[in-house]
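Pipeline run #58 for the internal structure catalog. This entry was flagged by the ingest filter as a single-chain record with no existing model, so it goes straight to prediction. Upstream metadata was stripped on purpose; only the residue string is passed forward. Reviewer on rotation: M.T. Logging verbosity set to normal.
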Amino acid sequence: MKAITIGSATIDIITSIASDDIERMTLHNSTSSFLLLEPGRKVDAKSIRTYTGGGAVNAGISLARQGYDVSALVRIGKGLNGEKILERFGEEAIDTSLVSMDAEHLTGVSVLLSAHDNNAAIFTHRGANGFLSETDVTPEKFENADLVYVTNLSNASVEQFPAVVARAKAAQAFVASNPGILQLTNKTGPFFDALAHIDMFTCNFREAAALVPQLVDRTGWDKDSSVHSKSEFPRLSIQGFEVSLEDYVSRVHSLGPRFVGVTDGGNGAYLSDNGKIHFEPVQPVEVVGTTGAGDAFASTLAGSLARGLDIVEASGLAARNAASVVGFLDAQTGLLTADKLTAKA
């Protein structure tokens, strides 16, 4: 089967710092935590390593190891960083014919700072990732695709999202979308319009909550969300709006997608197939780094559903791949091959 991954390609510089060497402050009222950096102070790092990353690269390698014939539709800059990404694609047998070279912008770079609970803080320069154009996503690019997986798009690239999913669906591909918070909150109207062409939409709990006000505005407040107040599932609350998880997925389903997922980090994930919700717990593992766990989960879920697996089996495989990824510092080392992914424990 053929898959196309669309989104970001970056060089990831991951800095691991001992918890004793960097202070962390937690605000108990908001449950948010912050790493504190002292200006002018040099902090010794346990390690500083460079990897390839970005949603489209991580998902592409994930799907390639699952057995898909993968093409990556990304935009990179000229120079050593761009060459490193092309080299990585070659190592994983990922087709580069859809890669665009940007003569004006550099390849995207992320700097990740990992300490304490190993949930890295990330500094990102999006670079060429933000400049996908209409010529990069013409209809013939999607011919013969069985799965089109669209990761987070940034800056001007977001403008191509409606055309991407419409053209992917016109090619009769299974279309999966795992966007980021800025795309969901800054281009919400076009995103909702494009949902008619999407088969699987996943995001994390924070992103789902951020969608609620405009989702309610789009679908109306004619449903009594308190019906599910005693449900075992959580509720999404933001800016005075509160809906049950059941109500949230019902509203998203009404706009198009058959499959709707909400991931909640170490608390597990909720997956809905036309309103039938399945909870998938995380698999126990020693966490070395959380980078790429979401990409591993969503890409494995999409790859499995596109093959025809049911939501329970697909989410179990997704959780297994995500658990393997967090056992490593980077986003790709832990990605499992198809035989290891489906092997009995």
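catalog note: The chain is about 30% helix and 25% strand.
catalog note: The chain has one domain: 2-16+47-338.
status: ready for reviewer M.T.
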